[in-house]
Design a protein that fits this description.
Blueprint (H helix, E strand, L loop, with lengths): L1 H5 L8 H5 L17 H24 L5 H23 L9 H25 L2 H8 L2 H12 L7 H23 L5 H26 L5 H23 L9 H28 L2 H5 L4 H14 L5 H18 L12
Helix pairs in contact: 3-6, 3-11, 3-13, 4-5, 4-10, 4-11, 5-9, 5-10, 6-9, 6-13, 7-9, 8-14
Length: about 325
């Protein structure tokens, strides 16, 4: 893969590849391709993988305690990434002050997964897919205060309003139609999205351009895994209470397909295409997640859930959509 060589020690990573780990649009000094049929097909595949992950996490927490499940997922991913990094000759060294920011970002990563995996056990796959993908709204609000060049525009405000309406509908679904305690799981998943968005802002402000995408993802996993393991030992007395073949299959999917394959291919997409074109497909992930929950887990598709999905998906599309450039007047 071309992105792999650029992430290595001999060639500096492109700004697009760095942005892959944080979901942000960097200022590119290189010319990248516009959306084409290949990008559409790849993003349909990647967003479906991420959407299906909501079902995978839900199923995993039925056989393994939530935090231990996330810990095992990360541990397997570390082994796979280590093998991949050694094979490709990617850098594992962390020098200077950025290593402390990598450490802090790993702590945020641990908080994200503790909340998300704990939340989905109380909630359902559809809610998980939608609430978790509200993190871009956290980024949009935070960027308004942290980065003068990334202020909230009327278009982004419209997207935030739509997303807030969707969140209200989803909590209505939790309180009125779902079982008791579902809303508590939704709050945990929403907290996970806040951790994710905060991590994105932290990377953009302090890390972007100083670590390769591989180094950043590797640091997140290495720092977060022992923290989650310790948390599991403290609060989960029987972490592997019903571990079986299905649990092992879900772990293999999450670590091998989601972390290794999809994340690395996402780097390739951002290295080959304009980041704004890639990010415009983000609204599809919760759509795939809800469909997977309905089809595979027989979750109910209520009017509240459908309405929340439409509003949050619309908000994601509006916030991530690149601004249209004004047309130049035609000379007379």
């Amino acid at each position: 893969m071309s992105a792999g060589g650029r992430a290595g020690g001999r060639h500096p990573p492109s700004a697009a590849a760095e942005a892959a780990m944080v979901g942000e649009r960097p200022a590119l000094g290189e010319r990248l391709g516009r959306a084409d049929g290949a990008l559409v097909l790849w993003m349909l595949l990647l967003t479906s993988i991420w959407g299906l992950n909501s079902v995978s996490v839900k199923v995993l927490t039925e056989g393994v305690s939530p935090v231990m499940g996330a810990t095992l997922r990360n541990a397997i991913a570390i082994a796979l990434l280590t093998a991949f990094g050694l094979w490709r000759g990617l850098p594992f060294q962390y020098r200077g002050a950025v290593k402390w920011h990598a450490l802090a970002n790993g702590v945020l990563f641990a908080g994200e997964f503790i909340c998300s995996y704990s939340g989905v056990r109380l909630s359902n796959a559809g809610h998980f897919a939608i609430f978790l993908n509200t993190s871009p709204f956290v980024v949009a609000v935070g960027a308004h205060f942290l980065f003068p060049q990334d202020r909230l525009s009327p278009r982004k405000l419209l997207g935030l309003v739509a997303a807030f309406g969707g969140i209200v509908l989803l909590f209505s679904d939790s309180v009125l139609l779902q079982g008791p305690g579902v809303w508590r799981g939704d709050l945990l998943i929403l907290a996970s999205a806040v951790f994710w968005g905060t991590s994105t802002l932290h990377v953009k402000r302090f890390i972007l351009g100083q670590l390769t995408p591989f180094q950043l993802l590797y640091a997140k996993l290495v720092v977060s895994t022992p923290l989650m393991l310790a948390f599991s030992w403290l609060v989960e007395p029987d972490p592997l209470y019903a571990f079986g073949a299905r649990s092992a299959l879900m772990l293999a999917y999450q670590s091998g397909v989601v972390v290794l394959f999809s994340y690395l291919m996402f780097i390739v997409m951002l290295d080959r295409y304009q980041p704004s074109a890639v990010q415009s497909f983000g609204f599809l992930t919760p759509v795939w997640g809800v469909l997977a929950g309905v089809l595979l887990l027989e979750e109910a598709l209520s009017a509240y859930l459908a309405g929340g999905l439409v509003l949050v998906g619309l908000g994601l599309y509006v916030v991530n959509r690149p601004p249209t450039k004004p047309r130049r007047p035609t000379p007379a």
